[in-house]
Amino acid sequence: MKFLSNLPEGVREKYSSRNYDIVIGIPSYNNAETIRYVSEVAARGVKEYFPEAKAIILNSDGGSQDGTRDAFYSADTPGIDKLSFEYKGIPGKGSALRAIFEFISLVDGKYGVLLDSDLRSVKPSWIKNLVDPLLNGYSYVTPLYLRHKFDGTITNNIAFPMTTSLYGYKLRQPIGGDFAFSGQLARHWVEREDFDENTAKFGIDIWMTTTAINEYGKIAQASLGVKIHDEKDPGSSLGPMFFQVVGTLMNLMGTYKSKWSKVSSISEVPIFGEAPKEEPVPIKVNLQTLKEKFASGLESRRELYEKLLGRDLVDSLSPEKGIDLDNWIEILAIFSAEYQLRDKDGRKELLDALVPLYFGRTRRALMELDPLNLDEAEARIESWAERFLERKEVFTSSWRSRGLL
Ligand SMILES: Nc1nc2c(ncn2[C@@H]2O[C@H](COP(=O)(O)OP(=O)(O)OP(=O)(O)O)[C@@H](O)[C@H]2O)c(=O)[nH]1
Ligand SMILES: [Mg+2]
Question: How many CB atoms lie within 10 A of CB 353?
Answer without folding.
Answer: 17
